[in-house]
Amino acid sequence: xxxxxxxxxxxxxxxxxxxxxxxxxxxxxxxxxxxxxxxxxxxxxxxxxxxxxxxxxxxxxxxxxxxxxxxxxxxxxxxxxxxxxxxxxxxxxxxxxxxxxxxxxxxxxxxxxxxxxxxxxxxxxxxxxxxxxxxxxxxxxxxxxxxxxxxxxxxxxxxxxxxxxxxxxxxxxxxxxxxxxxxxxxxxxxxxxxxxxxxxxxxxxxxxxxxxxxxxxxxxxxxxxxxxxxxxxxxxxxxxxxxxxxxxxxxxxxxxxxxxxxxxxxxxxxxxxxxxxxxxxxxxxxxxxxxxxxxxxxxxxxxxxxxxxxxxxxxxxxxxxxxxxxxxxx
Length: 330
Prior knowledge:
The protein is mainly β. The chain has two domains: 9-61 and 68-208, Jelly Rolls; 224-316 and 325-329, Jelly Rolls (Sandwich). The chain is 12% helix and 34% strand. A six-stranded antiparallel sheet has the order 2-3-4-11-6-9, with no helix packed on it. A five-stranded antiparallel sheet has the order 1-18-15-20-13, with no helix packed on it. A five-stranded mixed sheet has the order 17-16-19-14-21, with no helix packed on it. β2 and β3 form a beta hairpin. It is globular and about 65 Å long. Mean pLDDT is 89; it is low at 304-330.
């Protein structure tokens, strides 16, 4: 089929925004069924991410991600804007999500884009609690007394483990990167004035909650997020298709151009608030800053059957260290 022979290219997607009782959500990259991102420009403009996955499969995400996730695009990227408190929530682990809901679970990372001076968020518990105490406090409206409180500032990042309770207060703009799932339960209303369309599920989600004192999470295996302060051009090259990447611009502006040995594609300019998908088969690109202070978040999915399929067994000697502006996947 001629269409399958067309080369993929770095793609921006149209935002898909919706209002919530606590603020607004803007989906940047989503393959959720009820939200399906649409390519903004180029030959594939007007096609959805689901259609790309159905036609180009591993050419979009890479062999390893495709082997594990199939036609499901592995990650979800969205912006959260809070005007009042979110309800207290909990995400579902993969195992329970698959068994109960035939879905991916949801590990997530929050990166704070903007924070008003008095903004707060809750993440986990101040101390270990008994489940009965947690439930009673929810019923009595005293759950805040045992929630672990943060006063975030721009640039802070937080990993949200499945089972950890969390909520963002008013005055925050957050970039959320997660597994491709919205399997999140509202368990207590902190001031959003939820309606019947947004019910609470404390009883249904109760056995999913972690009742231990919060401790910062280690890096998750579902995806990897790397902060990039893009001050100089960066050449990203692989001698064969590897994992896909997404680049979310959190400040400044960047450009993606074909690398020295790449097939030509139209350069992509993207600024703060925009995300670009670089498909697996686009394995030779140049990332260039278009403004001072450009910061990107690179997201990759590296779950694979062979853990050493493209990472060498040893580190290079310091004398032979590569150019810091060239990253090579072998």
